[in-house]
Specification:
alpha/beta; FAD/NAD(P)-binding domain; D-Amino Acid Oxidase, Chain A, domain 2; 3 domains; eight-stranded mixed sheet; seven-stranded mixed sheet; 11 helices; 25% strand; binds flavin-adenine dinucleotide
Length: 451
């Protein structure tokens, strides 16, 4: 170790929701950690985002570990209804309640709560630039400090919570761990841009969250409008970065949509970022390594909801990391149960999301109104599909109603079957790394299927 180098039990990279959740939960377990983030302290929590955070996630977090739910000024609006409009003349209600929150205020509160745990050291303006690996084990990171000096921070376990880039993960080569996906391909990345706008008079979307499709966007992109107050809205666009979509500029298209629907609005904040649009990483652990939140691809590919999964995955990671540190067993085997937990919890959401992406790519938007007009899919069906405990196959009972478009019906049925298969495989995530390859083969075979 050099003079400036540091050593700790757990190095947490990134102080977004997942990293802070890991830090708080390891703090409660008396495990010494260093939490680093490239941002300055006052900016921790800020992130270009739709700002929707489901109270179901934060309630679960509270029940698991006592982190209080967003409160007071941290909540912008309690949203009362959610609407999906795939075509102009049709709208679907989605059984989903949420809140829009002030991410900076909520993030700062979580960060400040770390003062209760003096054994958690927070180092802001510290940027991780590389991963240190020794004998196939991740043993720390190279970190650039504000003055430009590079130091090593060594740890028994490194937790990658650095968001989509996965700065620690991406430097772990396949010869160290071939179960980790080092770089997420562009075709599984969603590019996105959002603005917070103020309307001169109360807007017409009070307490609503809406996801709409408009012809200005490449299909199957989406335009969201989330209420943040009587005259405040969070609006944004996003789409998968595939070959056809990559020429479209998210900022330009959002500005066009804003000029069209909110011509008099004042822009208060505008920024873009990326999120993942895929299933969770097949494995999220290696020797001395674990990853959470966006770095583990835990964003719901339909709703873009990743804040709740980030907070909760941080809790699940801390549970396993504590055991590993106490048992002095920090290899892949010791951390494996985290994979099981995450896939059991989030595999279905990912599968359903990918099914919807496939369907939107395979079916013209105009066919959606047909599906609902003919009641091939009813509101009740949507409710049951969204409820991960009850995937039904309503399509097969509705063949007569949909007989004019049998091809469409087959695609929808295949989409639902796809989600159902992923769900089953998620529940059968291998209990031991030796069975991993067989399981991945099965899941990839399903993923490759076209609708
Ligand atoms: C435009 C947009 C809209 C979204 N809308 C919603 C929404 O409405 N609802 C929802 O639930 N989710 C939404 N999401 C997703 C949500 O923002 C993320 O899922 C969530 O922030 C993930 O938390 P995280 O802690 O994993 O990563 P992040 O929040 O990305 O935090 C990562 C942290 O790591 C730090 N970091 C990165 N690299 C380094 C490095 N090299 N060294 C040190 N520190 C580093 C960053 O500074 C950051 O603080 C949206 C995302 C985008 C981009």
């Amino acid at each position: 170790m050099l003079k400036l180098d540091l050593e700790t039990d757990v190095l947490i990279v990134g102080a977004g929701p997942s990293g802070i959740s890991v830090a708080i939960n390891l703090g409660k377990r008396n495990i010494p950690c260093i939490l680093v983030d490239q941002k300055s302290k006052k900016d921790i929590g800020y992130k270009p985002c739709g700002d929707a955070l489901s109270p179901n996630s934060t309630r679960k977090l509270f029940e698991l570990c006592g982190i209080p739910q967003p409160k007071g000024e941290e909540i912008a609006e309690n949203l009362e209804s959610a609407h999906f409009r795939p075509v102009l003349d049709f709208e679907l209600n989605i059984p989903f309640i949420s809140q829009t929150i002030d991410r900076l205020k909520y993030g700062q509160r979580l960060l400040n709560s770390l003062v209760d745990f003096p054994w958690i050291k927070v180092k802001t303006k510290h940027k991780v630039v590389d991963t240190i690996i020794k004998n196939n084990e991740i043993v720390g990171c190279k970190v650039r400090k504000e003055d430009g000096k590079i130091i090593n921070i060594f740890a028994k376990i490194v937790v990658d919570c650095s968001g989509v880039t996965g700065i620690v993960r991406r430097n772990i080569l396949p010869n160290v761990c071939n179960k980790l996906l080092t770089k997420i391909p562009n075709t599984e990345i969603i590019v996105s841009y959002r603005e917070i706008i103020e309307t001169p008079a109360p807007h017409k979307y009070q307490k609503q969250m809406r996801i709409e499709y408009h012809k200005e966007m490449p299909p199957p992109g989406y335009f969201w409008i989330f209420s943040k107050g009587e005259k405040l809205l969070n609006i944004g666009v996003g789409w998968l970065l595939n070959e056809t979509n990559k020429k479209h500029n998210t900022r330009k298209i959002l500005e066009e949509l804003r000029d069209k629907f909110f011509p008099d609005a004042k822009v208060i904040d505008a920024a873009g970022d990326t999120l993942t649009g895929r299933l969770p990483l097949y494995s999220m652990v290696a020797n001395g390594f674990i990853t959470c939140g966006d770095a583990a691809a835990l964003v719901n590919p339909i709703s873009g909801e990743g804040h709740g999964p980030a907070l909760l995955s941080g809790y699940y990671a801390a549970e396993i990391v504590e055991l590993a540190i106490r048992n002095q067993q920090t290899d892949e085997n010791a951390l494996w149960d985290y994979n099981v937990k995450i896939w059991n919890n989030y595999g279905y959401d990912g599968g359903l999301g990918i099914a919807v992406h496939k369907l939107l790519n395979a079916v013209p938007f105009s066919d959606f109104s047909y599906l609902f007009e003919k009641e091939i899919i009813s509101q009740e069906d949507v409710d049951s599909i969204m409820d991960s405990t009850a995937v039904k196959l309503p399509i097969f009972q509705k063949v007569v109603k949909g007989r004019r478009k049998p091809g469409l019906l087959i695609k929808v049925a295949k989409g639902i079957l796809f989600a159902e298969r992923i769900k089953k495989l998620s529940q059968k995530y291998p209990k031991h790394p030796k069975d991993f390859d067989k399981w991945v083969k099965k899941i990839k075979r399903i993923e490759r299927k076209k609708l």
